[in-house]
Amino acid sequence: MAKNKQQKKKERERRVAKKKLAASAKKRTQEKSTNESQKGVLDRSSLMKAAVPKPDRVVTNKKSTFTQRRTGG
């Protein structure tokens, strides 16, 4: 009877180990697919940003607001 109990315990450990391996493999594939999809979006957005040149904006003095003009400050 003790051998039967040990065998059951070993089988259960094997099942749990297989389950863990399957879960980790599934998680890995999901992470890989999400990384690839995000990478594709980033590539497209960087391409669009590079395609449209930004004008060089010269920093000018900021206009004073209405209240600053009225109060003289």
How would you explain this protein's 3D organization?
The chain has 73 residues and is mainly α. It has 2 helices and no strands. The model has no long low-confidence stretch (mean pLDDT 80). The longest helix is centred in the middle third of the chain and has 50 residues.
Which terms summarize this structure?
single chain; 73 residues; mainly alpha; elongated
Order of helices and strands: HH
Radius of gyration: 32 Å
For the largest beta-sheet, the strand count, sense and barrel status come to: none
Structural class: mainly alpha
Uncertain parts: none
Quote the average pLDDT: 80
According to DSSP, the number of beta strands is 0
Give the N-to-C terminal Cα separation: 95 Å
Shape: elongated
- Tally of helical segments: 2
Helix fraction bin: over 70%
* Percent of residues in β-strands: under 5%
Task: Please sum up the structure shown.
The chain has 73 residues and is an all-alpha fold. The chain is built from two helices and no strands.
Question: What's the arrangement of secondary structure elements?
Answer:
Layout: H1 2-51, H2 66-71
Biased composition (Basic residues): 1-27
Biased composition (Polar residues): 61-73
Region (Disordered): 1-73
